Structure formats: structure tokens, C-alpha cells
Amino acid sequence: MSRPYYDPNPISGPEQYSKAEYTLKEPWKEQAKGLRLVGHSDLNGWGDAFQIKVNKGICYVAASGINGNDGITILDVKDPRKPKVLNQMRDGEAARTHKVVPITDDIMITNSELRVGMKEKHPEAIGGLRVLDTSDPVHPKLIRYAETDGRGIHRPIYDPRRKLIYSSGFKNGCKERILLIHDMKEPTRPELIGEFWLEGQMEGETPSWDTETVRSQACHEAHPLGDYLTCTWWDAGVSLIDLKDPTKPKLVWRHSPHETHGWAGANHTFVVPEGSEFGINAQETVVVNCAHPPAHVTFYDMRNIMKPQVASTFMPYDVDPKTMRPRDDKWCKTGARYGAHNLWHGMKADDLLYVCWFNAGLRVVDWSNPFAPKEVAYYIPAGNKERAVPQSNDCFVDRDTGLIYVSDRWGLGLHILEHTN
User: Fold this and answer.
1) What pLDDT, on the 0 to 100 scale, is given for residue 366?
2) E strands in 244-361
3) What average pLDDT does range 294-306 have in this prediction?
4) Which tens digit of pLDDT belongs to each residue from 214-261?
5) CA-CA distance, 70 to 202, in Å (whole number)?
6) Which strand (E) or helix (H) includes residue 159?
7) 261 with 324: CB under 8 angstroms?
8) Distance spanning both ends of the chain, measured CA to CA
9) What is the rounded CA–CA span in Å between residue 233 and residue 244?
């Protein structure tokens, strides 16, 4: 079967931020349609940023760790034109704590994912969930760790209706990350009540995926859908999990165009927004210079929840159907990633889709017709002499103000945007 080309030895890991080839002679200038910059912060040098949460004029930005910064920057954004850093909580180098998840006004969760090889250097390091007291929002205090197996937890997602946290994490005896379910009825004491893995992840099981094409079957994240979860499994696709009994999750189906057709892998976020019967799956581009086909967004018709059907896909620029790469190869010569990544998790059926596209910035999509999604706005931040292009990483929309917050993965900081109409 014909499949698009995948470089078997792409530049990966920390080297992709320093050793990738590029053809740029000078930094890219700001590019925008329908959006404009309101304010910017370099986060006092912690410009390598990840997940963002904003509440009542206080903004939490977790560091990505790419440039060696680990922890949380807390800003006053009541005047978004002049965001002010109020505090920076530095974490140790042993673990990534790059996710922030508010549970109540007084409790916030971050992940703790041990970096490979760091347990030997830092035997005291703990992987799992960290519980923070945010009753003083500017000076959070660590209450406790909810320790988990192995290297801990990569991405936690909170379900306020059922008071559960769904996390991608590790389990002794399992290959790569699985799904962990914590009860949060007592928010200061997460209790592990359920686990789920794909058949073949546990030692001794026969893989249920195509071992020739699936390089990683790691769980990435899960989102609530009534009594079900939509869950992503990196190259092994998207799935629906029966969660009527959260102590006994059951697989309903798994769908993986990467296995069957060679589409981009690295499935990142699969969510059915509240009020919709259509799902949105965003993959993550994980290599630079289009060494793999760039990640895109896929819309699923979920009206028959037991039999999902692909409705359409979205790419901001024209794609060659055979290579699945942009026809304009400038996106693939920047020494950076091009393709989809994080989308705004708080969206509902009537909202626009906001999705970060690494060196192509933030893309805003009208998906009111999921069979024909249409881009309506975009913002590509300007580069600088250290980082000639952006790596737009995560986004958050503040419903109280309508402002859009965008973090940059490798050093360009926090950009605050607004629509121009």
C-alpha cells in the first residue's frame, strides 16, 4: 500500500531545538488576519511556555522546560496590555510539571512526569499528581503528591460533572503510558480508582495494533462524553471507552488512520465539545522540517457513537495529497515544527476552534459545518534573533473578556490577542 514518507531517523528530543537545519536569513515578521496583539510577556525569561489557565485576572503559565525553565509563572492580566509577572514558582529539574488544572478556586493540580534518567540523580523525585493550595492565587502552596507508578503523569484532564481526573500515566509492567482515573470528590486527596490499557501494553499480552507502523501506543489524554471517554493513543489512534463504572473502563472501539492509511500519527486530543455530535481530533507534529507528514485536525461524525465516521480534515495551507505535506515548502525549512498541537479545551458546540500550529501560529476555524471547516482568523507571532519563528504551543480563551492567550514552546513567551471584529 502506498504511504507518505516518514524519515526513519528524524532529529528528535532536545536536539531538534538546536541542531535542525534551516534556511531563514532573518526572523519572520508578525502575520495576522482577524486577530491583533493586545499584550506580550517574556515571562521574565521563562518564555519557553506550555499550558495556560486564566481566572479573574490571574494567569498561570506552566513552563515547557525546553530552555531549562521548570515551574509556573503567575501574572496579573487585568490590564492585558501590560501583563505583570507577580510570582514564579521554580520546580526541580527532575520532573516536567508543564500542565496546570484548576479543580476549585482554592485547589489546582499539576502533573509530575519524571524525566528519563533523572530518578537516579534525584532519588527523592516523585511522579504523579501535585495538589496545590491556591487560596492565595499568587502564592500557591504544595499540599501533597498523589504518587503513581513509574515516571508519573503526563497530562491530567478534569471532569467537573463526575469529579474525576483522567490522566495519561505509567503503570509498572505496562509499555508506555496508560489511562489512569482518580476520584477527586475530596480535591486535596486524589484517589486512584481505575486503570485502562490497550491489549498488548501489559507485559505478556499480544499487541492489538500493527507493530510495523505504530511506533508508540502511549495514551496521551482523555475527555468526558457522557458516560464515555474519548481517548488518544499516539500512533494507535483514537478510541471510545465505556466509563459507566469508572473502576472498570472498557474499550468500545479504536480507530487509527495512521495504521491503515499512513496519516500523521501522534494523536493528541480527541474531544466532542459540549452540545455537539461531532468530534475533533488534533494530532501533534513531533519532528522538525516535516520529516514526518505534519499533524492535522480531523472532524468525526459521532451521531452514531458506536460507528464514528470521518467527516473532514483541516490544514491551513494547501497539502499535496500524496506526501501529505504543504505544497509551499517554506513551512518545512525553518528548523522548527509545522503542524497541529494543542487546541482550546474549553470550547462548546457554538464556539470557534482555536488550535496552535507551531511555526504557523494560532489558527481559528469556523466548524459550524464540520463537513467543510473554514479558517476565519490566524496570528503568527514575530520571531527574534534567537528564535526566528514561533512554536505556538497552547492556547486559552477567557470567556469573561474574549481574550485569547497563546504560549510559545521554545522561548517567545506569552501573547495576548483579541479579534478585530
Assistant:
1) 98
2) 250-255, 267-271, 278-283, 297-301, 309-314, 353-356
3) 98
4) 999 999 999 999 999 999 999 999 999 999 999 999 999 999 999 999
5) 32
6) strand 153-159
7) no
8) 47
9) 21
Which residue do the cell numbers 482523555 mark?
A: 222
Separation of CA 182 from chain center = 20
Residue 206 CA to residue 213 CA, distance in Å, equals 16
In whole angstroms, give the CA distance from residue 303 to residue 159.
22
Give the pLDDT mean for 79-94. 97
Q: What average pLDDT does range 341-370 have in this prediction?
A: 98
Q: Strands 278-283 and 49-55, how do they pair?
A: unpaired
Instruction: Determine the 3-state secondary structure of 3 from DSSP.
Output: coil
Which helix (H) or strand (E) segment is 259 a member of? Answer: helix 257-261
| CA dist., res. 128 & res. 111, Å (int) | 6
Cell representation of residue 367:
466548524
- Which pTM was predicted? 0.98
Which segments within 83-235 are labelled E, that is strand? 84-90, 95-96, 100-102, 107-114, 128-133, 141-147, 153-159, 164-169, 178-183, 191-196, 222-225, 228-232
Using DSSP bridges, classify how beta strands 84-90 and 95-96 pair: parallel, antiparallel or unpaired: unpaired
For 179, the grid coordinates are: 489511562
- H or E, element range at 260: helix 257-261
- In 3D, which of 69, 24, 53 has the Cα closest to residue 409? 69
Question: Which CATH class name applies to 31-419?
Answer: mainly beta
Task: Output b/e per residue, 84-109; b: 16+ Cβ within 10 A.
Answer: ebeebbebeebbbbbbbbbbeeebbb
Note the pLDDT tens digit of each residue in 118-152: 989 999 999 999 999 999 999 999 999 999 999 99
What's the rounded Cα separation, in Å, for the pair 139 and 62? 14
Give the number of C-alpha atoms closer than 13 A to the C-alpha of residue 414, restricted to the C-beta side. Answer: 35
Residues 207 and 145: beta-carbon distance below 8 Å: no
Strand partners, 280: 271, 299
Tell me how far apart the alpha carbons of residues 209 and 211 are, in angstroms, rounded to a whole number: 6
Contact 412, 352 (CB under 8 A): no
d(C-alpha 19, C-alpha 68), whole Å: 17
Query: CB of 40 within 8 A of CB of 414?
Result: yes
The count of residues in the chain is 421
The three-state secondary structure class of 172 is coil
Strand, helix or coil for residue 348: strand
- Using CA atoms, how far apart are residues 38 and 403, in angstroms rounded to an integer? 9
